[in-house]
Write a structure and sequence with these properties.
The complex is a heterodimer. Chain A is mostly beta strands. In chain A, 0% of the residues lie in helices and 56% in strands. Chain A contains no helices and eleven strands. Chain A is globular and about 40 Å long. The termini of chain A are far apart. Chain B is mainly β. In chain B, 0% of the residues lie in helices and 50% in strands. Chain B contains no helices and twelve strands. The relative contact order of chain B is 0.34. Classes of the chains: A mainly beta, B mainly beta. Chains A and B meet through strand 5, strand 9 and strand 10 of A and strand 5, strand 6 and strand 10 of B.
Amino acid sequence: DTEVTQTPKHLVMGMTNKKSLKCEQHMGHRAMYWYKQKAKKPPELMFVYSYEKLSINESVPSRFSPECPNSSLLNLHLHALQPEDSALYLCASRRQDAWDYEQYFGPGTRLTVT
Amino acid sequence: AQSVTQPDIHITVSEGASLELRCNYSYGATPYLFWYVQSPGQGLQLLLKYFSGDTLVQGIKGFEAEFKRSQSSFNLRKPSVHWSDAAEYFCAVSSPNDYKLSFGAGTTVTVRA
């Protein structure tokens, strides 16, 4: 299994809602990532988890709250978002070996904030 | 810090013609280099990667790339494009012990019949 899955595929939420994005991989990867991608732009790194611990937070607003309950699962909790947060949210995972730096990406969640 | 430049924002190519996408990187040592493709509304799919060894790398979907240290380049090529190759292409670089990928701005490829 070389797949990263993300749910839901699409999400529409109001600015006062609370919702969560889910990411799962069963490749035994111990590094997991959240990216935000606007149209026609490259992905922007948000968070990195290594061995279930948050290792990088790229100064992301607190209305985005990541969680890594176990080595296969990564969540992104959303609260009080702004319309400018509408984007494609991508999850990725990577082995921790020193020789393999490839990141495997999921299909993304298309988020619309109204 | 490492960085990646993709000089071409948009390329239009005829179906069956060859394609070359340019990528230049800035990094002090040998970087780890990647090409990803993204179809509209989809995630990123890895086309190929270079860590070391043979500087001509073969990837999926008939793509290849050549690492040229003297030019700090990692250009992507395909001899004959198909309409399904219309997509966004991102070059990316990473370095040892670095969790991060640095992406180029991307090149949009349009294929005309």
